[in-house]
Specification:
By secondary structure, the chain is α/β, with parallel strands linked by helices. The chain folds into two domains: 129 residues, Alpha-Beta Complex (Quinone Oxidoreductase, Chain A, domain 1); 155 residues, 3-Layer(aba) Sandwich (Rossmann fold). The chain is built from eleven helices and 15 strands. Strands 1, 2, 3, 4, 5, 14 and 15 form a seven-stranded mixed β-sheet that branches. The chain has a six-stranded parallel β-sheet with strand order 10-9-8-11-12-13, with helices on both faces. The protein has a two-stranded antiparallel sheet with strand order 6-7. The radius of gyration is 19 Å and the shape is globular. The chain binds NADP nicotinamide-adenine-dinucleotide phosphate. NADP nicotinamide-adenine-dinucleotide phosphate (NAP) binds next to helix 1, helix 4, helix 5, strand 9 and helix 8.
């Protein structure tokens, strides 16, 4: 737990959580680290009060279910997305032995998938569905809309082409890989932009073409690839969302008279009017049908892959501070994970 911002996490006692209606309590077997956890520790962003328990995703065994829960029972293996960002409650943070998860943000993890593999999914999945399937933009934060691409959900069947194409900038980032998978499974083609060493994993997630983000002709190559697809260009999901990637995004979009720009951080202020830019907010109920109907059967059939692969840095809560440090140093097509 964190007692204040900018100080190392400490392992300590916390009250044992209980499951209210609509909730499950998970006995965590693995937790994953996200860049946001580092921001929460460093500058206290999204922290309502200290002491706080951070962490956005868990994999483990259901310990208790709320009185109305039908879809889960004690002993089930699950993955789940925490809501500590919006609730501020310590019992909703992942970096603990037991965490409360809304049942609508959890799914059964097939026996063939380990907890350390499965735990990379929840946060990126909900971020991806928020980026793609929100129809009417809400607010990610005051004055910043969410993107409203209105794209369909992923399908368990072989996806029928929607005739659309999306560019994913940061195609090897955890969110970029997930957007690529979910978009492809919804029948939308993906052109990905990633590091040259990560073309294969991006293609494994469904990208039809991948371009190197360091290529000096990147904009020209991406524009030509979109044009030659003869599909309807929907826009760009930018997992990186930095000034450098925004400049490239806007240059690409300018060739198509604008389009959607879904960002992981506040969008560029200099975007022209024909660019519909918004920032995702990953705790988003738009993902509920995907949690309830897609994740488990698609994982069982192999249609949905738990990617990027985890890098396990230790076993026990005492390893989480080191894991945060590793994540902050930067990762490439992996997620830092701690076993519990
Ligand atoms: N708003 C929200 O709700 C929300 C939700 C989730 C995440 N986020 C934010 O989204 C960002 C991404 O998170 P994440 O977990 O997906 O990241 P991540 O997996 O930690 O990102 C690492 C990847 O970034 C890639 N990368 C770095 N610079 C790049 C560039 N200039 N062009 C293309 N790729 C580049 C690297 O690619 P190579 O190794 O291939 O070069 C690496 O694979 C973070 O800032 C996070 O805080 C926001």
């Amino acid at each position: 737990m964190a007692h204040r911002s900018h100080t190392p996490l400490q392992v300590g006692d916390a009250p044992m959580p209980t499951a209210a209606p609509g909730e499950i309590v998970v006995n965590n077997s693995a937790v994953a680290i996200n860049p946001l956890d580092c921001h929460m520790q460093d500058i206290g962003v999204f922290v309502r009060k200290f002491p706080a328990i951070f962490g956005c995703e868990v994999a483990g065994i259901v310990y208790e279910v709320g009185s109305d829960i039908q879809d889960f029972k004690k002993g089930d293996r699950v993955i789940g997305h925490t809501i500590n960002l919006v609730s501020g409650r310590p019992q909703d943070g992942a970096f603990a032995l037991y965490t409360v998860i809304p049942a609508s943000k959890a799914a059964i993890l097939p026996d063939t998938i380990s907890f350390t593999e499965g735990v990379v999914v929840p946060f990126a999945l909900e971020a991806a569905v928020c980026a793609l399937s929100v129809k009417e933009p809400g607010l990610a934060m005051p004055g910043v809309p969410t993107p409203g691409l209105g794209l369909p959900y992923p399908s368990l069947q072989t996806a029928i082409s929607t005739g659309k194409i999306l560019v994913v900038y940061g195609g090897s980032a955890a969110t970029g890989l997930m957007v690529t998978q979910v978009t492809t499974a919804a029948g939308i083609q993906v052109i990905s932009i990633a590091g040259a060493h990560n073309f294969d994993i991006s293609k494994r997630c469904g990208a039809v073409q991948v371009f190197d983000h360091k290529d000096s002709s990147l904009v020209k190559k991406v524009v030509e690839a979109v044009q030659s697809s003869e599909l309807e260009f929907k826009g760009i999901f930018d997992a990186i969302s930095s000034p450098g990637t925004y400049a490239q995004d806007l240059a690409i979009l300018a060739n198509f008279g604008g389009g959607h720009l879904a960002c992981t951080h506040p969008p560029p202020t200099e975007a022209p009017e024909n660019v519909k830019a918004g920032m995702i907010f990953a705790v988003n109920d738009v993902a509920t049908p995907v949690w309830e109907e897609y994740v488990t059967p698609a994982s069982e059939s192999g249609k949905f892959q738990c990617l990027p692969p985890p890098t396990v840095v230790g076993k026990g809560l005492e390893h989480i501070q080191e894991a945060l440090k590793r994540s902050k140093a930067g990762v490439s097509a992996t997620k830092i994970v701690v076993e519990l």
